[in-house]
Amino acid sequence: MQDFSLFFELGWKHILDWQGYDHILFVTALCGTYLIKDWKKILILVTAFTVGHSLTLALSVFNKVLISSSWIEFLIPITIVITCIINIKNRQTIRKNIQSSYWLALIFGLIHGLGFSNYLKSLMGKSNNVVAELLAFNLGLEFGQIIIVFSILVLSFLLVNMVRVQKREWNLFISSAIFGISLIMAIERIP
């Protein structure tokens, strides 16, 4: 149980680490265009993302998938850029095709999971309890993502409901800002 709590803590601390802010940017772009009333949709989106990165994280830890880390580090900001483009394109409409968003979150989760794999492999070493540690780490990641989502939803609520910023303007602002940061990140990481 001690290892479980250690890896759970490592998971949520890793996701909330400002030095690895690309994941924070992705989760923010993924859910930043929704409001609190959309919490079920957001929960499913974030869970689809978690399923994707949990799958590739496990495959990578067990050495079933090996992809150059330079390509993964380049593709992660590309996933953020694409998410922002979709948000900006849909800024004046409510997302009608939410199912495609779930699939996209799942696919992008596959890429992000590979980004965590080297970090997790270095932590696990030659552990005999890989499955439990992997589960704990993934649950920690999910917990961290929920903290990010909650923070963004509170900020969205305050801006849209209290300050009276138009929802479409908030969407344009947050998506454009994240787009710019991620595009620069992608250019800097071209393999």
Overview of this protein structure:
InterPro entries: Put_HupE_UreJ (IPR032809). This is HupE/UreJ family protein. The protein has 191 residues and is mainly alpha-helical. It has one domain. 79% of the residues lie in helices and 0% in strands. It contains seven helices and no strands. The chain has helices at residues 2-15, 21-31, 39-61, 69-89, 98-124, 130-162, 167-188. Helix 3 (39-61) runs antiparallel to helix 6 and helix 4 (69-89) packs antiparallel against helix 5 (98-124). The N and C termini lie far apart (40 Å). The mean pLDDT is 88.
Radius of gyration: 17 Å
Low-pLDDT runs: none
Question: How many discrete domains?
Answer: 1
Binned strand content? under 5%
Largest sheet: none
Number of distinct helices = 7
The string of secondary-structure elements, in order, is HHHHHHH
Number of strands: 0
> In oligomeric terms, what are we looking at?
single chain
Note the gap between the termini: 40 Å
Q: Give the helix/strand class.
A: mainly alpha
Mean pLDDT: 88
Q: Could you say which overall geometry the principal axes of the C-alpha atoms support? A: globular
- Tell me the helix content: over 70%
InterPro entries: Put_HupE_UreJ
Keywords: Membrane, Transmembrane, Transmembrane helix
Protein name: HupE/UreJ family protein
